Amino acid sequence: MPAPVIGVLALQGDVREHLTALTGAGAQARPVRRPAELDAVDGLVIPGGESTTISKLVDIFELREPIDKRIAAGLPVYGSCAGMIMLATEVLDGRPDQRGFEGISMTVRRNAFGRQVDSFEAPVEIAGIEGGPLHAVFIRAPWVERVGEGVEVLGRVSDGRIVAVRQGNLLATSFHPELTGDLRLHRHFVNLVRA
Ligand code: GLN
């Protein structure tokens, strides 16, 4: 089977790191900035960065409706950190004007860990990923405060906070696997796109 084409929403954030990780995980990775580029992908990554900025740029680049439509049609999407926030149906501590794609039925709290400690690293066991816990890097990360029906909790940090979820074709983590060189989570997403 040819390698699936996976786009990285390239408006702001750590786009290059995801492109590198996806390539290493066996995908044809491409930046996505235009609706026509979105049309050409089999899956999409929304990177970490700043969700308020990504939200604004999604409108400026006229990508909101095309992404909403592809998500509704079943496009596999993986959101990391700010990308997780962009996939949530409800955001706490967000800016009133920020808007996401509302694909995963969950409430996330923006900068949640940041009120305790800005950045930290921790081992996180992820359901469906073999080989031991991932070394998870959290940077002003959100956590998931509530999940709705149909949302599978894939991982938690040691205090029980939910940091990885999946609902259907949508996957989200509070942390940044693209920064560690461990490709297991990207491979997991590439397999989801293949299936
Ligand atoms: N705090 C950022 C936000 O609100 C997310 C941080 C990140 O993506 N590393 O979007």
Task: List key phrases describing it.
195 residues, alpha/beta, Rossmann fold, seven-stranded mixed beta sheet, three-stranded mixed beta sheet, 12 strands, globular, binds glutamine
Summarize the structure.
The chain is of the alpha/beta class and 195 residues long. Helices cover 26% and strands 31% of the residues. The structure holds glutamine.
Overall description:
With 195 residues, the protein is of the alpha/beta class. It has a seven-stranded mixed sheet. It has helices spanning 15-24, 35-39, 51-60, 64-72, 82-87, 184-194, and strands at 5-9, 28-32, 43-46, 77-80, 88-92, 104-109, 119-124, 134-139, 143-147, 152-156, 162-167, 170-173. The model has no long low-confidence stretch (mean pLDDT 97). It is globular. It has a single domain, classed as Rossmann fold (3-Layer(aba) Sandwich). The relative contact order is 0.18. Glutamine binds next to helix 5.
